[in-house]
Q: What sequence folds into this?
RNA sequence: GGGCGAUUAGCUCAGCGGUAGAGCGUCUCGUUUACACCGAGAAUGUCGGGGGUUCGAUCCCCUCAUCGCCCA
């Protein structure tokens, strides 16, 4: 016998272990079934499960479990990402606790430390994924730094280099002065900073007493100024173009140039140009042949290219000093408060510096072209479709991708330098040595490029590198391209776009047919969850309190397309209650001997109630399947919830109690079998969203079954299961019972009182329904009898209309006449309002002329029904007297 | 500045051309042996404002307001 309530903690671990051990998650490369493939976005190896993970992996697991049950050969490819900077930071932080830095160890030893850390702590996220019930093919788990994946990375790098799509260049990069590495544009976050706009006077050379005013938010960069730009058409400065300015504090003569970058409308209209430390200035410098003087070192301290007094100063100390000194020289015109956007490193949190360095770049614009076309032609489709615009916007304006990082943890760039700086890009050191020997005519000492690749470089290869590429494995042939990629919009640029580029380039086909972009999970007020705000809801805590299934079902139910999820814990509680409800329904089945009957077929049933529930179930299961197919997880969850609670528990189980308690053995047997069968189907339909409780019930309700639910087949029913007549009949019963309950409640009839119901003017059909279902009507409406009304309507009665009939509750002595009059009046008013509205429509010639016939017909029907009901209630009201 | 999205019951959200829905919350009643993590019933909405298209608009179009996000 089942316990009284479901205790998730007691069964989740067991089922997970059994699933995994039995190979239920494994794809079958040799299967004849059509593959269904999802590449798991590899979480960072440093990660721990947050609500965003919980959503994305729940959605993926729902898809995978569902398609597995649909008998697709499902491959959910798992793995983790080495997360270069993030992981290196974690390990360095640990070393810092012992007062050490990575430099105390040296590169190789430090990398050894990182691997050690990974072996000890890198499994957290995958353990937590297991708690969430995720069912990827763990045997195929990969890590972006695996040998195989590293080989793929090297091959891609070398090939792209040979094709001219990877190149080395000296340009301004986003330099992170804390982490000492370049980062890509995407890793830069613009933060609004309240600062100042300092206006400086630069003396014009050769014109004593004349100044040009320039404004800057970054005074320290003035030491690297190599020009002042004005708009070529700006009348104020036209005469100055070609002249020079004597740069204060430095003494350098720098030219005044005409360039349209200077906006006459902002500030003074003149701008100082620091080509080595500003992206816009860099372009101006190129156009106007200005020198680029690098004045910063890797810590963003001033270097030897500035006057001695400033050398070694931090950028912010230098700023203070410069302002003070210019003020002393009376060259500070004014200071305006100014709020502006300052780029910050997303990992380090410090302001990044544009810095001139040698870096490796990917020619993203070239690779983007086929990737754009693939979406334009529908080879890859975004769901919801609007995200395609975001993708296009980014891809059509894509900039060269800086892929080198000055850190140690990651894929080291496969380039080796000879003594004269010539480099050899090869997959292995041996190949590089051979190439160098050929080039120099003898063996020479080679040094490998110390940089590593951007983490996203290896992630971009994930859809094929995990399947064995560059080897032509059976997996690669079978599972690429994948079916759907599930992810959040925040990494469309980081990852989706890059997989598209790499996939198309190396596999000549898109990496996935569909990209499902889900929402971001926020707190219940719509704030992004963050540790600093203290509004984080920890999925593991939720799981601990309400169970995994409750969390998964909540996330499914809230995953409506195109909207963020504001997660409120009471929603989870509500769906935990749903799990308990299901549990108790199963318990009821068990107590009533409703056990699965081998060979049961839901056709040819004798009991209307059974034909009805079977049809409702078929409808609900179809809705769930269609919703999952359309990535409408909220609709899938709601359809399953509504059927289980609203149809099966609230009505069917109550309807059948008289049969199960009765003496018609054949009806009893049929009903038991049907009840068991429907519950069984519910378990199937809920399983993708609530895997644990359904598996547990599946096992407990019929321990003899050979297979587990995870491996069962998704139910698909023929149209013959839906019986419209049965549905109409049961709906009639439902309406009758609801009506009586409502009258009782409104008239304050004590629940325990068994009263009589009379049916007035009921036709033969209704009377037949009444006879069929008398037992359950008596029970559910708490009546002593239900009979056709003979003779006149009793004086003190409460009445309601149902189709052609009137329901009459004779409540002599009990009924409060005023209350009943008020109730009837309210009903009548409601109906009158409706009739009036419909009449207005029907008397509108345009409506009658232009609306479709069936709409007009429907309006007429509704009007007639309402009018009939109103007349009957009117009579009832008159009978009560004024 | 450019783009996207949102605004529906007290709260969180579905719906998106023809009877406004759910969950939670609220109120009333209820120990009917599956379930009080429950059951029955009830109340609650000029579907952000203003225009337009249409026989008909919560739904389509325009505009304004407010809020949020992305990109400069």
A:
């Amino acid at each position: 016998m089942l316990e009284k309530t479901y205790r998730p903690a007691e069964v989740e671990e067991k089922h997970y272990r059994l699933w995994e051990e039995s190979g239920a998650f494994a794809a079958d490369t040799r299967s004849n079934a059509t593959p269904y493939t999802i590449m798991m976005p590899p979480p960072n190896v440093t990660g721990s499960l947050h609500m965003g993970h919980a959503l994305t992996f729940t959605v993926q697991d729902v898809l995978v479990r569902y398609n597995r049950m649909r008998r697709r050969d499902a491959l959910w490819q798992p793995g983790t990402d080495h997360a270069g900077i993030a992981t290196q930071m974690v390990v360095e932080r640990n070393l810092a606790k012992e007062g050490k830095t990575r430099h105390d160890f040296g590169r190789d030893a430090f990398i050894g430390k990182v691997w050690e850390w990974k072996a000890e702590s890198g499994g957290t996220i995958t353990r937590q994924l297991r708690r969430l019930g995720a069912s990827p093919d763990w045997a195929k788990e990969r890590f972006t730094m695996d040998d195989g994946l590293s080989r793929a990375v090297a091959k891609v790098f070398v090939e792209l280099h040979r094709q001219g799509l990877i190149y080395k260049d000296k340009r301004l990069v986003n330099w992170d002065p804390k982490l000492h590495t370049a980062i890509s544009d995407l890793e830069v976050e613009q933060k609004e900073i309240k600062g100042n706009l300092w206006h400086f006077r630069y003396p014009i050379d050769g014109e004593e007493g004349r100044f040009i005013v320039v404004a800057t938010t970054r005074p320290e960069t003035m030491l690297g100024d190599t020009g002042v730009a004005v708009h070529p058409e700006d009348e104020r400065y036209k005469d100055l173009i070609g002249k020079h300015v004597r740069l204060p504090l430095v003494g350098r003569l720098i030219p005044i140039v005409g360039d349209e970058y200077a906006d006459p409308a902002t500030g003074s209209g003149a701008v100082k140009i620091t080509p080595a430390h500003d992206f816009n200035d860099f372009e101006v410098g190129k156009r106007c042949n200005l020198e680029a003087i690098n004045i910063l070192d890797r810590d963003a301290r001033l270097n030897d290219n500035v006057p001695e007094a400033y050398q070694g100063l931090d950028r912010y100390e230098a700023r203070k000093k410069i302002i003070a000194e210019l003020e002393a020289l009376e060259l500070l015109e004014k200071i305006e408060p100014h709020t502006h956007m300052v780029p910050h490193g997303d990992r380090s949190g410090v302001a990044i510096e544009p810095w001139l360095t040698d870096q490796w770049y990917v020619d993203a614009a070239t690779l983007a072209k086929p990737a754009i076309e693939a979406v334009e032609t529908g080879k890859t489709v975004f769901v919801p479709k609007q995200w395609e615009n975001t993708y296009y916007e980014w891809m059509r304006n894509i900039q060269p991708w800086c892929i080198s990082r000055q850190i140690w943890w990651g894929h080291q760039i496969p380039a080796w330098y000879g003594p004269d700086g010539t480099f050899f890009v090869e997959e292995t050191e041996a190949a590089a040595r051979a190439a160098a020997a050929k080039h120099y005519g003898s063996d020479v000492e080679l040094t490998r490029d110390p940089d590593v690749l951007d983490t996203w470089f290896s992630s971009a290869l994930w859809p094929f590198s995990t399947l064995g590429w560059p080897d032509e494995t059976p997996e690669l042939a079978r599972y690429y391209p994948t079916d759907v990629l599930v992810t959040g919009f925040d990494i469309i640029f980081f990852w989706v776009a890059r997989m598209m580029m790499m996939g198309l380039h190396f596999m000549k086909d898109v990496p996935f047919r569909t990209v499902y972009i889900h929402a971001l999970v926020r707190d219940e007020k719509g704030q992004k969850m963050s540790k600093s705000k203290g509004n984080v809801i920890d999925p593991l805590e939720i799981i601990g309190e309400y169970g995994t299934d409750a969390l998964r079902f909540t996330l499914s139910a809230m995953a409506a397309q195109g909207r963020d999820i504001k997660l409120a814990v009471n929603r989870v509680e509500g769906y935990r209650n749903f799990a308990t409800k299901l549990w108790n329904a199963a318990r009821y089945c068990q107590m009533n001997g409703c056990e699965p009957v081998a060979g049961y077929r839901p056709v040819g049933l004798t009991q209307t109630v059974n034909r009805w529930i079977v049809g409702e179930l078929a409808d609900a299961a179809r809705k769930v399947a269609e919703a999952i197919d359309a990535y409408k997880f909220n609709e899938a969850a709601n359809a399953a919830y509504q059927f289980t609670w609203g149809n099966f528990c609230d009505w069917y189980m109550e309807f059948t109690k008289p049969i199960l308690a009765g003496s018609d053995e054949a009806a009893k047997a049929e009903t038991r079998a049907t009840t068991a069968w429907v519950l069984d189907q519910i378990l199937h339909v809920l399983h993708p969203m609530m895997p644990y409780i359904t598996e547990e019930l599946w096992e407990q309700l019929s321990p003899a079954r050979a297979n587990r639910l995870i491996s069962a087949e998704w139910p698909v029913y023929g149209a013959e299961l839906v019986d419209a007549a049965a549905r109409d009949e049961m709906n009639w019963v439902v309406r009758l019972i609801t009506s009586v309950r409502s009258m009782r409640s409104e008239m304050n009839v004590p629940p325990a009182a068994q009263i009589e119901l009379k049916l007035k003017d009921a036709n033969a059909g209704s009377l037949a329904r009444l006879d069929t279902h008398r037992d359950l009507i008596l029970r559910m409406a708490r009546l002593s009898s239900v009979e056709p009304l003979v003779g006149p309507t009793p004086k003190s009665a409460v009445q309601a209309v149902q189709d052609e009939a009137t329901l009459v509750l004779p409540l002599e002595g009990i009924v409060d006449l005023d209350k009943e009059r008020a109730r009837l009046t309210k009903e009548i008013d409601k109906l009158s309002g409706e009739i009036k509205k419909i009449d207005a429509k029907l008397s509108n010639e345009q409506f009658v002329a232009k609306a479709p016939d069936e709409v007009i017909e429907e309006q007429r029907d509704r009007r007639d029904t309402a009018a009939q009901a109103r007349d009957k209630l009117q009579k009832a009201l008159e009978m009560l007297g004024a």
